[in-house]
Structure formats: structure tokens, C-alpha cells
Amino acid sequence: MTLRLPTTLATDSDAAAIAALTKYYGRPYLGDDAYVGAQFDSWSSTGDRAGEADRFTADDLVAVTFLSVQVPPKAARAILHTEAEALNALLTAIGPDRDLGSTNRPRSPRDGPPGTWKPPCGRCRGSARRRQPS
């Protein structure tokens, strides 16, 4: 897969990029005219994002809806309850200094073995898998 910068960001002028960012994030920053998705990584109904940094919360599930992502009910239950301990441990292992938006990130937290997230996340699907007839 080849990633390309949008034309707005691929020019020598900063003006177009600044205009696009201002439109998305609003003026003032995260003001009423900002896109809802701009608040994805800062959303907290409790005001305690720092205290919740190492665990998934219901606010995190709300925050992803700002990006038009729907979390199926069974997945929400797994993330917040049945698989919470395993997933929160993996989240803690990532650490606060990891840029999750990086295209060069390792396949699993802290360069651990590949597939570290797959077992608990595989159980977060929205519906049970159909069994194949024997």
C-alpha cells in the first residue's frame, strides 16, 4: 500500500495546510465550529483523561464515534469487561510516549512478539463466528 500526502500538504506553501487544519480544528482551537472528529483524542466526560490513560473506558468508545466508528455491543462488552484486564495491560505496555498514528510503529506494544493484541482483540468482534459444518 502506497501512502500519498494530500495535494494540500504536498505543496511548498504552508497556507493551504494551515487553512485545512484551521477548518478541521476550528478557531479558537476546538471551538464550536471545529469538526467533531477533532475532539477524538481529548474527549473525556469526567475531565480525568490523565487518570484513565492506561485503561479503556466508556468515554473511549464514545470518542471513536467522533470518527464515525461504530463499536458493536459485544465488542464494547469485551473491551470494557470480559477482556478488559488483558487489553488494559497491553495498553499500559504501549506507554505514553508512543505515537499511535505513526506508520512506522511496531506490530505490537514495545516491540513485543507479533500478534500480542490478536488473541484478546479477536474476541472483541461484534458477533460470534459461525461454526463450519463438520
Give a nutshell description of this structure:
With 134 residues, the chain is mostly helical. It has five helices and no strands.
The helicity comes to 25-40%
Structural class: mainly alpha
Q: Main sheet, how many strands, which sense, barrel? A: none
Annotation, overall tally of beta strands: 0
Distance between the termini: 37 Å
Tally the helices: what do you get?
Answer: 5
What is the succession of H and E elements? HHHHH
Uncertain residue ranges? 127-134
| Rg (C-alpha, Å) | 18 Å
Percent in strands: under 5%
Mean pLDDT across all residues, rounded?
78
Please state the overall shape, judged from the principal axes of the Cα atoms: globular
What would your notes on this structure say?
Helix content is 34%, strand content 0%. With 134 residues, it is mainly α. The chain is globular. Mean pLDDT is 78; it is low at 127-134.
Write the SSE topology.
Blueprint lengths: L14 H11 L32 H8 L7 H10 L1 H11 L23 H5 L12
Descriptors for this entry?
134 residues, mainly alpha, 5 helices, 34% helix, 0% strand, globular, disordered C terminus
